[in-house]
Specification:
Layout: E1 4-8, H1 11-21, E2 25-29, E3 58-59, E4 65-66, H2 72-87, E5 90-93, H3 99-112, E6 118-120, H4 128-136, H5 143-170, H6 181-197, E7 202-211, E8 217-225, E9 228-230, E10 249-250, H7 254-264, E11 269-281, H8 289-300, H9 304-316, H10 332-346, H11 382-385, H12 391-406, E12 412-423, E13 426-437, H13 451-458, E14 470-482, H14 491-500, H15 509-518, E15 522-525, E16 528-531, H16 533-545, H17 554-566, H18 572-581, H19 586-596, H20 599-603, E17 604-605, E18 615-620, E19 623-628, E20 631-634, H21 646-654, E21 661-664, E22 671-677, E23 680-685, E24 688-691, H22 703-709, E25 714-719, E26 722-729, E27 732-737, E28 740-743, H23 749-752, H24 755-763, E29 777-779, E30 787-792, E31 795-799, E32 804-806, H25 818-828, H26 860-863, H27 883-886, H28 895-905, H29 911-917, H30 922-945
The protein binds one DNA strand of 25 nucleotides through helix 3, helix 5, helix 15, strand 24 and strand 26.
DNA sequence: CAGTGAGCGAGCTTCCGCTTGACTT
């Protein structure tokens, strides 16, 4: 008899549920989402590749219809599910009861296309009772909730895939922007900016060791002198380091404190007030993902990833409930188990009289799961499972067990005491705390490893005193204080901040931190997260030009809209339409900002410590550097932005910066200088210059290396009566023999190439990439032309003379088989790009020619398959841009270049006149013009082909 | 703004949120 197929999200969950449901049911898992938007062009099916929206994976012109694909690593699993569906009596989609879960259910339905009845069931705890109850009360898929998820997905894709390219063009390639990561980075950058602006203040205080008449000791601190309160940290302005103007306080400098000490240490002190207030403290809520990560960090020293990896293993092996949750709720069985254990281990007195429940505290919590707790209806104690677990697992289980049990324990009760003493015109204060009944603190103290020790720490016991008692000064000393800048975020506190703002989800907290580290926005020092200069430049761009997108409330507002969509009160397509195509929409924003953003301005990073010093910090192609006039110096990678002081900057620059004298030639005594030139970094000695190799950097340049570089050009020997020179040119290393030349395989071979090797190179015909280069391999087929595997400029590729196909990263040219090669060719083979003005005649009017319907006279070459991305506007017969075309790309130029070209082209001035105005020699200005022309042409060509 | 021998198969990078395995040494 056919079974009912139940599909959940997680395999571990499937196993458990199958036990509860019995033999009429088969339980399988989807293993998360089964379909998604294509990640990159390689995942886009062939028929959509030509669409203008192919890279987005969303047909923005037609109701933002998403293109969903089953990612290749999921195909096998989906096929397996399909097969199971065919044999099933009915299908129950039991994915999580939240937005993403509803979406997974819908995708399963769409993709598996069941012909048998389909139901949707949900549950919030995995107990036999809850599961049986859930399966008896099925419902249908909630389309509105699915739409809300789709809107979320599409919005995130549009944001990420439209804004990231702006960063590539204006800041650096491979950077990224996104609704979550950009705000996470912003938090870090803003905090660092606060630290950079922070001015520390120094203040002093007094601390006294006192004795009662019964010779019982205690300490008290000065709080008031002459009727005025003593200044504390919060009385200072963080930006100036001065007292806030309205602060009515006494500020003690060191001398004041010492003077006061002399005056007070012999004074007579009397108790002027005593106060005692009872207090109670409630236990913390059971763990959710974010609090588990925080406590994992504070108590165990685990980072977010380690905590989650460990929790995952505990979950899979049945020790704890699901670890990605935002709900603090305990199921009934968990509640009972916890309470029973409290009674057994600590006694009735320690049990809270009624079951405790905790309010949800996370913004946008979806509460599809329980809190994180020991699994089952009877909790196994840490001691019981000790032998079965690894060290990490045991520590984390112990933590979870304690927190869960503590959550049902009684309040802690105690008293807080405060005593004030007066001597002359000074008032001292002492506080104490006594815990009368520890309650839950016996099991769990937040942030501490050992509850018993922490309990003792918490008690500061004051001897009994009464108003009017005299006390004696045993000792008194001055104490120095400095105000501290706001602390840097740690993984744990960043997660906490994101969660408080409703940004990110339990399943993503750990990966958010990885992402911003991978992109080079953040690095870690100990547990502190430090934003990089790249993060500063990126944030400046986003804040100045896309402020709405990095607003801390952006996600919260989105969530409100998604709730409206989920509730059926709002439609998702108009919502996206407005976000993308609206007057203030993303698309128009990007179009206008792409022109307005000045990369030079963005690369300049304001540093408060350097204001007025003529030193500027910029983000360049190879990282951050400082510049003062003509001198520049690379900023070390491990220096935090708030640590860069004027003194340190001057020091780095005074070493000559990157452009400095490295030393003298031991033979001639001539200076050897490192410089940054128009064509990149180089070293110079007298008249002789040599470019650095790509592996060198100015900041790491030494005299020895410079001397070695200066041996190039090197006379290799003589061949056929002509000298052979090893040279480093515009296109890289090469050999020169008279008018003949050959490219060398690598820069280092400039030093090592021998006459024999040179002879071999010149004996072979001039290497022309892709034409005469020897193939690595040739595969022959009975039914098609042979395919060659070659190595070119960009790495290995395949060619059969007509079509070429590239290999992806990870595809090894040497291990290709004939069959694999044929497949790759069929899949990716394309005719080589026709060169400008040399269009092939055989380009048949293909489907792509339809795109040029707007221009009736479009030449065949523009529509040829070789240049499928040609825009409707023909680029002109000669492919040459006019000034008006080039003008919009002025942002690729430096300030001087821009001023020069504008003066010449717009104001019709002569180079001879403009050069002096810009402080240039006429010859240099003319040289610059060549560069300018090249840069503009290149930018224009890129824009046209994009 | 050092000073230099050509001609050439590129495509891709990126988002957020669900969830686990995995080429072999």
């Amino acid at each position: 008899m056919a079974k009912t197929l139940v599909i959940v999200e997680s395999p571990a969950k499937a196993k458990t549920i199958e036990k509860y449901l019995g033999k009429d049911y088969q339980v399988e898992s989807s293993i998360g989402h089964i379909r998604d938007l294509p990640n990159s062009a390689s995942e886009v099916p062939e028929q959509f590749k030509q669409k203008p929206w192919a890279s987005l994976g969303i047909d923005v012109e037609h109701d933002f219809k998403p293109l969903y694909v089953v990612p290749s690593e999921k195909k096998k699993h989906v096929a397996k599910l399909k097969a199971l569906v065919k044999e099933a009596r009915e299908v129950v989609l039991a994915t999580d009861d939240d937005r993403e879960g509803e979406s997974i259910a819908w995708h399963l339905f769409q993709e598996l296309k069941p012909k048998v009845p389909v139901k949707r069931m949900v549950f919030h705890e995995i107990t036999p009772e809850a599961i049986r109850n859930a399966i008896q009360h099925p419902r249908q898929i909630d389309e509105n909730l699915v739409h809300a998820q789709e809107a979320r997905r599409v919005l995130d894709r549009l944001y990420g895939y439209e804004v990231s390219p702006v960063l590539w063009r204006k800041v650096a390639p491979k950077l990224s922007a996104g609704r979550v990561q950009s705000v996470a980075t912003r938090l870090l950058v803003e905090r660092e900016r606060e630290r950079m602006r922070f001015r520390s203040a120094e203040f002093w205080s007094l601390e006294g060791l006192f004795r009662t008449l019964k010779e019982e000791g205690f300490t008290a601190a000065l709080i008031e002198v002459g009727g005025v309160r003593l200044a504390t940290g919060k009385d200072f302005d963080a930006l100036t380091g001065e007292l806030k103007p309205d602060a009515k306080v006494v500020l003690l400098k060191q001398a004041d404190a010492e003077q006061l000490l002399q005056r007070l240490k012999a004074a007579q002190f009397t108790v002027i007030s005593t106060e005692e207030r009872p207090f109670t403290q409630k236990p913390y809520a059971p763990f959710i993902t974010s609090s588990l990560q925080q406590e994992g960090s504070r108590k165990l020293g685990f980072n977010a990833q380690r905590t989650m990896r460990t929790a995952q293993r505990l979950y899979e092996n049945g020790y704890i409930t699901y670890m990605r949750t935002d709900s603090t709720t305990l199921s009934k069985e968990a509640m009972e188990a916890a309470r029973k254990q409290v009674r057994q281990m600590y006694g009735d007195e320690y049990l809270h009289p009624t079951p405790r429940t905790y309010d949800k505290k996370a913004k946008n919590a979806q509460e599809a799961h329980e809190a994180i707790r020991p699994a089952g209806s009877r909790f196994r104690t840490p001691q019981e499972v000790r032998g079965e677990l690894s060290d990490d697992e045991f520590k984390l289980y112990d933590l979870i067990w304690k927190r869960t049990v503590a959550s049902q324990m009684a309040d802690a009760r105690g008293r807080r005491m405060q005593v004030r003493l007066q001597g002359l015109d000074a008032i001292f204060s002492a506080s104490g705390k006594t815990i009368d009944f520890p309650g839950f603190l016996r099991a769990y103290v937040e942030g501490s490893d050992d509850p018993e020790a922490a309990l003792e720490d918490r008690e500061v016991i004051l001897p009994p005193m009464q108003k009017g008692d005299s006390v004696r000064v045993k000792d008194m000393r001055t104490r120095e204080h400095h105000t501290q800048p706001p602390a840097r975020y740690t993984e744990a506190s960043l997660v906490q901040a994101l969660e408080a703002a409703g940004i990110g989800r339990p399943s993503t907290y750990a990966s958010i931190i990885s992402t911003i580290q991978d992109r080079g926005y953040v690095f870690k020092r100990g547990t502190a997260l430090i934003p990089t200069w790249t993060a500063f430049a990126t944030q400046a761009l986003l804040e100045n030009h896309f402020s709405r997108l990095v607003d801390y409330n952006f996600t919260a507002r989105m969530e409100e809209d998604l709730d409206e969509i989920a509730g059926g009160r709002k439609e998702h397509v108009p919502y996206l339409q407005d976000f993308y195509f609206g007057d203030e929409g993303l698309k128009s924003q990007i179009q206008t900002q792409m022109d307005q953003i000045d990369p030079r301005a963005i690369s300049l990073i304001p540093v408060p410590a350097l204001v007025g010093s003529e030193i500027e910090v910029r983000l360049g192609k190879f990282g951050a550097y400082m510049k003062k006039g003509e001198v520049s110096a690379t900023l070390p990678n491990d220096i935090a932005p708030d640590e860069l002081t004027l003194q340190q900057a001057e020091e780095l620059l005074s070493k000559g910066g990157d452009e400095g004298i490295l030393g003298q030639d031991p033979v001639t005594g001539q200076d050897v200088v490192a410089k940054a030139g128009r064509y990149g970094p180089y070293v110079q000695m007298g008249e002789k210059t040599a470019s650095l190799f790509p592996t060198d950097s100015l900041s790491a340049m030494t005299l020895e290396r410079a001397m070695q570089l200066l041996t190039i050009p090197r006379l290799v020997g003589t061949l056929d009566g002509e000298e052979v020179w090893a040279m480093n040119g515009r296109y890289g290393p090469y050999l020169k023999k008279g008018k003949d030349n050959r490219t060398l395989p690598g820069h280092e071979s400039l030093f090592t190439v021998t006459v024999e090797q040179a002879q071999a190179l010149f004996a072979a015909p001039k290497s022309r990439m892709g034409q005469s280069a020897a193939p690595l391999k040739i595969f022959e087929y009975p039914d098609r032309t042979p395919i060659q595997v070659k190595v070119g400029r960009f790495g290995p590729y395949l060619t059969d003379g007509e079509n070429n196909a590239y290999l992806r990263n990870g595809e090894d040219a040497h291990s290709l088989t004939a069959e694999k090669t044929r497949e790759l060719m069929a899949e990716r083979g394309k005719p080589p790009k026709a060169r400008a003005g040399k269009a092939t005649k055989k380009a048949a009017p293909s489907k792509t020619s339809k795109t040029s319907k707007t221009s009736g006279k479009a030449p065949a070459k523009a529509a040829s398959k070789a240049a499928p991305k040609t825009v409707a506007k023909p680029a002109g017969e000669t492919q040459k841009a006019e000034w008006k075309d080039l003008k919009s790309h002025l942002n690729v130029l430096s300030d001087t270049e821009r001023q020069l070209i504008v003066a010449l082209r717009e104001e019709n001035k002569k180079a001879e006149d403009v050069a002096p105005e810009l402080g240039l020699e006429v010859k240099k200005a003319k040289g610059m013009m060549l560069q300018i022309s090249k840069k503009l042409q290149e930018a224009w060509r890129k824009a046209v082909s994009a």
